[in-house]
């Protein structure tokens, strides 16, 4: 019996140069995620000998549970730098970075926090495995010796995923009330209430952030958000104003699914040694494998949730047999 627990806290910040035709040149995302993992494995192995025969039995079951709680904060730089998309294909990243202005092009005054987002995901794997092997040594007519072998293997795995993602939107005209609510809760915020892209990023920067040396020092990283401040604000907003949060439909439904696979396999073979110069090895093997997957059939939409209403689940099956 083996039990293992592991908790990991990760923090990331990403700076992204967006593709040609997008509304802005730069996007960035600051993220904090807590991963809590528990794995339980129980195994049993036995071997039995009966005269000239041997029987081996291996049984095991594993349960692995992972829960992830995630807070992330997308920013957008509301400027547009025109770079030929075809030119980008063969260029070194350092050349591209210089062409768009380097770190000087990443402007805090032109950058806005788009939303506060949080998500939760629970992933559970349950597996069962069994293997049986039998071997018999025999002699026939004094001149024929051999081994009879037979085996069976079973494997079953079921994965269940559940989760939800919510966001407190700060963009466009429909978010005026949420932007005003944010300013009322945190009067130190300085921004233009009529800004369409969100709330000014200058309120959430971390001037003490030190990313260290990136790769071999060739590249430098731009400013970073104050992740402690952002996560604290998001937690307070979610607790005090849950009605102002919206379910992120596409990301939410993508977290909900169940998948299972099942395998049966068996074989029988014999080794026949006739005299000292002839050996025959006849045998047969069969394997059957089936899978089942259930998830939601999602149609995206341009509304705030990102998906059409009346989401339906769908299930697919596959069965294969091999000789």
| Radius of gyration of CA atoms, rounded to a whole number | 30 Å
Structural class: mainly beta
**Low-pLDDT regions:** none
The helix/strand series, from N terminus to C terminus, equals EEEHHEEEHEHEHEEEE
Range of strand content: over 45%
* Silhouette: elongated
Give a quick account of the main beta sheet: strands, pairing sense, barrel closure: 12 strands, antiparallel
The total beta strand count reads 12
Task: Average the pLDDT over all residues and give the rounded result.
Answer: 89
Characterize the quaternary organization of these chains.
single chain
Compute the separation of the termini in Å. Answer: 36 Å
Total of DSSP H or I helical runs spanning 4+ residues: 5
The level of helicity is 10-25%
List the helices and strands and how they pair.
Elements: E1 2-17, E2 26-50, E3 53-77, H1 85-88, H2 93-99, E4 111-113, E5 115-140, E6 144-169, H3 176-185, E7 199-200, H4 227-240, E8 246-247, H5 249-254, E9 257-274, E10 278-280, E11 283-297, E12 312-322
Antiparallel strand pairs: 1-2, 2-3, 3-4, 3-5, 4-7, 5-6, 6-8, 6-9, 9-10, 9-11, 11-12
